[in-house]
Amino acid sequence: MFRYYFTLGLRSLRRNRALTALMVLTLAVGVAASVSTVTILHAMSGDPLPHKSDRMFVPMIDVVPLKSYVPGAKPSFGQSQLAYTDAKNFMASKVGVRRTVMYGVAGPVEPARTDIGAFQAQGLAPTRDFFAMFEVPFLYGQPWSEADDASGADVIVLSRSLAEKLLGTVNPVGRRVTVLGQPYLVSGVLDHWDPVPRIHRIIGSKGAFGTEDEFFIPFASAIRHETRHDGGMACSGVERGPGFQGTLASDCTWLQFWFEMESAGQRGELQAYLDSYAAEQRKLGRMPRHAPNALYNVKEWMVFLNVVDNDNKLAAWLAFGFLLLCLINTIGLLLAKFSVRASEVGIRRALGATRRDIFRQFLIETGVIGLAGGVLGLLLAYAALAVVRSQSKELGTVAHMDIPMLLLTFAVSVLAALLAGLLPTWRACQVTPAIQLKSQ
Known about the structure:
The protein contains 16 helices and ten strands. It has helices at 2-12, 17-44, 84-92, 129-133, 146-151, 160-167, 219-224, 243-249, 267-283, 298-304, 310-339, 342-350, 355-391, 393-396, 403-429, 433-439; strands at 56-60, 98-110, 119-125, 138-141, 155-158, 176-179, 182-190, 215-216, 256-260, 294-296. Strand 2 and strand 3 form a beta hairpin.
């Protein structure tokens, strides 16, 4: 019977075509608005490393002077990064499976090719563990070695786009490129890697939804060359000597740090290390606030830094509110569509059809309208996302529909149509056969 009712539903689309088209369009517009908004929200709040995000941690300690401290206050931006002293000590601790410290760098790239001139590029200065920790894929070569980390060797990993721009599509491993005014030996080239959100770069000039990093150099090499950082620095109330060395010796916070543990259960072990480290530093006269030390896994870190802000959440609620208005309009249209079929219902009831049969038939017809609205809504959602991508580079990284969101489009459309069809279908079942037969 379902197949028969489904066929009737397809045929009913041709009845009163203007009314049917209006219903399909109303549903499609509501579904497109809600699904495109939720698609962006879904991508923004996604977890790029779901299988290990609960065992990757950002440490947070407070090295800001005691002045103007309010006990129990929410951690400030200055606590979300580390001073060079603490980052160096954490790297030497050997705690966890992997550790990495990093900061953003930017500067000129000088191509050997004569057909293009020098240009600016943005990159990152991490340690070797960064690539394994964030599961960065390689097209050619590999990360630099631990010895390169230790010595601060002038080696570099290029993004695929930068490698092709500088050296074409050939394997460039072993060749030299001039970046930041220094010749670097290419040790590897990344394959396409554009995690959303970019959890390793939420703090920085590019942010959680910026474009990919174009090159990577060893942290120790960047420090040795006194490469200026490209990102935020907090020095509130901190004494800072002149030049780059003054920054290294100060308690200015400007470095990002990640620990990777073997399991999420080792969080307590890492917390104990962090508390012990802070206690030792207080004996040396640092960390006068005695503020609690904190650890954030990937999801907690995204919440702390407000990756998905209230404006995005409000936009999603407004989109679903618009969908609700579309449903109310659809209910009115369905009432009009089904009311003209009262005689048909009366005849079917007189021939033995039960109210349950009528209810099932009309509800399946409503579902068919929902499917049609889903197809059109999907096309409209794709168009809306394309407009978003063309208007904003930042949102362009999240304005993409994946398979779960595609399935959600049809599910929302059919469910919305079924909900809208409950009242009109129930009203259609209340038709009295005798009255309809007499009127005929």
